[in-house]
Every structure is written in C-alpha cells, then in structure tokens.
Amino acid sequence: MITGYNTDVRHGNRIYHVQTEDKGLSNPKIETLIYVGGEILDSYRSSYDDLLAAPPLSETAIQGRMDEQHRAVIRDIKNGKYDQTPPDPMEQQAFNDRPLDQAILEFLQQEGEVDTLELVLDQPLKPAFGAPFRVQVAARLCQSQSPVAGAEVTVKLVSSLKKAMALASGRTDADGRFAGDIQLPPSQPGQCAVVVSCVSDHGFDELKTAVSAV
Q1: Please, where in the chain does CATH 2.60.40.10 lie?
Q2: Does domain 117-210 correspond to CATH entry 3.40.50.300?
Q3: Cα gap 2→163, rounded to integer Å
Q4: Which residue(s) pair with 203 in the sheet?
Q5: Is residue 201 within 8 Å of 109, Cβ to Cβ?
Q6: 147 contact partners, CB below 8 Å, separation of at least 6
Q7: What's the pLDDT score for residue 84?
Q8: Which range (84-88, 114-118, 156-160) has the least confidence?
Q9: Of 31, 4, 36, residue with least CA distance to 204
C-alpha cells in the first residue's frame, strides 16, 4: 500500500478535504473521498487491475494514477462541480428519504449554521528525523470555540515512498486538549510529513507539517 494524499481545497465559502489512498494489492483500487465539515460529500474509486496483469508492478505507476485522480477531483471542485445549488432544490434534496432530524442537521451544515470541529496547535510542530518533539493540540468548535472532549487524535509519519507509520494516538481531555511526546526514526525515504488528525461526532480536521533533517 502506498502513502496517500490529503489536501484542503478552499472554494467559495467552503473548505473541501480531499483524501486519496491506495487500498492495497489485495484490493487494487484507488479511492478518493471528498469531505466537507467531516461528512463525506462524494467518492471516486478506480481499479489498477491492468497494472497487476502486466508485471512487474511499479509503485511509481500506482503513485502516478493516484496523483492523476487526486488532481482531477481537486480540479472538479475548483471548477464548481460541488457548488451549492439554489435554495429550493437543495432543500428538497436534503429532506428526501432521511429522518427529519438528520435532514435538518445536514441542511444546516451545508448552510454553515452548525459548528464543526477544528484542530488548533498550542505550539508549532517542529519534527526532525532522529529527534524528539512534542505534539500539543486543542480540538474545538470553529464558531463557538467550545472545547471538544473525547475526540480521537492520531499522529502519523507519512512518506511519498513508504507506508504511513503510526506515532501516537489518544483522545482529547475534558478541555479538548491532547499532548504527546514523539520520537521520529533517524531517517525515512521520500518526502515526509507528520500528520495530526482528529475526528469526533462534530467532524474531522487534520494538520500536516513537513519533516526536516536534524
């Protein structure tokens, strides 16, 4: 499995989180998910069975397919494919085939009237290979600034050439805070970054910082 891509795309008054990943040789598909406010807005899946049928399999070829699909989805967003529709059609769609309370919540989220989760650094991340560093983040609601307790936090080292490595995980405390001491390996091939992600019932957010050499 090859390390994927995560990109935040601002278009209009919305932020779209685009995530593309390789599902692995046992399920040779490239999946791209589009999130808005922590909810999946759309998804794309493409197969690379054709690459398996013509060995030897090249990770560079898979990476190229991932990059192409990821860029195509971002291009669709910027070209307005997911722009909000006029009020009446959107309201009609929001209330079709779903429980009333769920439909109301989704409609308000689309209108930006519901608080969603955001992840904030207490201090800048300064990851360097072979050196320890500390992660201190706070999970809060973007409008009310209220802390989000019990949110799941994951810290990973991602590389353009290797599978992601889990570094730490846990949940935010009663004040919405999470802290952990991280030790990076001496080196890692490819372009590398530390990714801190957070998820709760209020949504999803992610922070990414490139890793520097000591």
Answers
A1: 117-210
A2: no
A3: 6
A4: 200
A5: no
A6: 138, 139, 140, 172, 174, 175, 176, 177
A7: 64
A8: 84-88
A9: 36
Q: Exposed e or buried b for every residue in 115-149, given b needs 16+ CB within 10 A?
A: bbbbbbeeeebebeeeeebebebbbbbbeeeebbe
Contacts of 10 (CB under 8 A, 6+ apart): 16
Q: Which two tokens stand for residue 120?
A: 């904030």
Please measure the distance between the N-terminal and C-terminal CA atoms of the chain and give it in whole angstroms: 28
Token pair recorded at residue 96: 């079709």
Dig out the tokens for 184 from the structure. Answer: 């990076």
Contacts of 47 (CB under 8 A, 6+ apart): 28, 29, 30
Question: Which two structure tokens, joined as six digits, stand for 172?
Answer: 């935010």
CA distance readout (Å), 160 to 8, 34, 92, 131, 191: 18, 21, 43, 21, 5
At 96 the pLDDT is 42
What is the rounded CA–CA span in Å between residue 161 and residue 189? 6
